Amino acid sequence: MLAPMRGAAATALSELEREIDAPGAGLDRLRLVPTPFVPEVRLHLAEDAIVWWARMEALAGHPLTAPYWASAWPGGQALARHLLDHPELAAGRRVLDLAAGSGLVGIAAALAGAAEVVANDIDPYAVAAVTVNARANRVTVDVNGDDLLDRDSADADLVVAGDVFYSRPMAARMLPFLRRAVASGAEVLVGDPGRAHLPVDGLLVLADYPVPTTEPSVDPSPRRVRVLRPA
Predict the structure, then answer these.
(1) CA 156 to chain CA mean position, Å
(2) Helices (H), 86-154
(3) What's the angle, vertex CA 55, arms to CA 119 and CA 1, rounded to 5?
(4) DSSP alpha helix (H) spans, the chain
């Protein structure tokens, strides 16, 4: 890691480790399973993230951030697949996985031979999830829980961002950051299944994949997901 885990992230890590080691099975439990479209990578996912969320909130006694890290989102799966199928994109490079969630894309970059991988997410549970998932896949992924989107550059050779255009406020901050990353010399790859706030101009389609999803309350049928690069 970049630094010893402290505060909320350390607490979240302890909670996830207890969850992983707890006996029993059911919709409200995490399971270490192959990712549907990227079986080379195993993740600790919830059978039903909403049910898991409700149980954890009941245990905590207060509201928790939605556990986006407990599902394998289609944009991230497409990006991870693309990196593993085209390892030259990540090999020997410094990679930043933005809004990393489970850490799937960063883990795929590490498996593809990246020199350094940083997975960034402001949710302390996501930071913890990246830690346990990287450990399960026997790769090194540094974690960063800071909000990076106002920074001038990405400090990386390759920036990957899956499923980041899900809301107008997020898109309004994410797109300028990605453009600044390109201007500073980084390559940027985006994975998106047609989210409402994906920019309509300025993105070059590199690949198109039929990706199954583990999103809660969503039809599990494969969705068409594109890997794009700012033109």
Answers:
(1) 17
(2) 104-111, 124-136
(3) 20
(4) 7-21, 49-60, 74-85, 104-111, 124-136, 168-183
Q: Looking at the domain assignment, is residue 124 inside a domain?
A: yes
User: What pLDDT, in 10s, does the model give residues 117-140?
Assistant: 999 999 999 999 999 999 999 999
Single pTM value for the model: 0.92
55 in a structural domain: yes
CB–CB of 224/57 below 8 Å? Answer: no
Residue 212 one-letter amino acid: P
Write the CB contacts of 166 (distance below 8 Å, at least 6 apart in sequence).
195, 196, 197
Q: How far apart are CA 1 and CA 118, in angstroms?
A: 9
Residues 6+ apart with CB under 8 A from 205: 226, 227, 228
pLDDT band at 56 (very low <50, low <70, confident <90, very high): confident
Q: Give yes or no for a contact between 73 and 60, defined as CB atoms under 8 angstroms apart.
A: no
What distance in Å separates the CA atoms of residue 154 and residue 180, rounded to the nearest whole number? 8
Inside any domain, residue 149:
yes
Residue 1 belongs to a domain: no
> For the chain, how many structural domains are there in total?
1
Question: What residue numbers bound the domain in which 161 lies?
Answer: 7-230
Closest CA to 124 of 56, 225, 174: 56
Q: What is the CATH number of the domain that holds 171?
A: 3.40.50.150
Radius of gyration of the chain from Cα atoms? 16
What does the buried/exposed string (b/e) look like for 193-225 if buried means 16 or more CB atoms within 10 Å of the residue's CB? beeebbbeeebeeebebebebbbbeeeeeebeb
